[in-house]
Amino acid sequence: MENWDDYRFILALDRSGTIRSAASLLGVTHSTVSRRLAVINERYGKPVFERAAGGYRKTELGVQLVEAAQEMEGISFSADRRRKADETELSGPITLSIPDVLGQYLLLDYLADFCRQYPEIKLSMQSTYRFADLDRSEADVVVRSVAKPPEHLVGRRLFPYALSHYCRRDYLEKTAPADRRWITVVAPSGAPRWIADSPFPDAPVGMMSDDITLRHKAVMNGHGMIFGACYMSDPEPDLMRVPNAPPPFPVADFWVLTHPDLKNTPRIKLLMRFLAAALLENQDLIEGRQGSA
To answer: Do residues 236 and 220 lie in contact, with contact meaning Cβ atoms separated by under 8 Å?
Structure first.
């Protein structure tokens, strides 16, 4: 195939499965993807993709071309990382991937300070709970709490964040025992184990949400009790730990990571040290040692 753009279109259609989704991935129109697919099919004299239920699937030829496209993409990403690795100045772009709540409730002021201190470094922040694929250059640095990150990544392992049981300070006083409710993640069935270990194991689940910020706002507004991150809840003057709750429960360790190709890039090293220092400064809060019932 002569045109790298053709490989991009093939990869996008393979990963998304539909013309419309591929167009969204590529930032082009639906008709552009359709025309390009027709051109590619004509070039090879047979289909690269064929229609299937709900979209497209690759043919035998398509399998071979997708494999070749993945290899070319990997080479492209590797070349881009090596280019960054050769840059020695404290300037240039960095893409940082962090969970939304970590940015909002803990690191926002630190990151703003980093931008003021190093104006020549253009910091872009991705707020996502998905572990960015550093091999595909989705980010340069990630901060995540995970039990086992990809083994080939390099960086620093810190300490775990902790969870505890929280409610508004006036919630237990204003809410009759029969009306007390837990706020939880969306669960297929059964109450979470942490409810059984709580001071109110018989209180039912009243609200479920897969959005951690919404659950936090719900407990702030007095809609129930949660099992929440200490670094989010302990600084809130209107919240308290549920009386007689067990000690904070440690989850997975925080990691500050980058790709091995970027580990010696000065601006990357600087940001990673900065992030580790910010987290260490808040270790007591993160591990739940600053709060009380």
So the answer is: yes
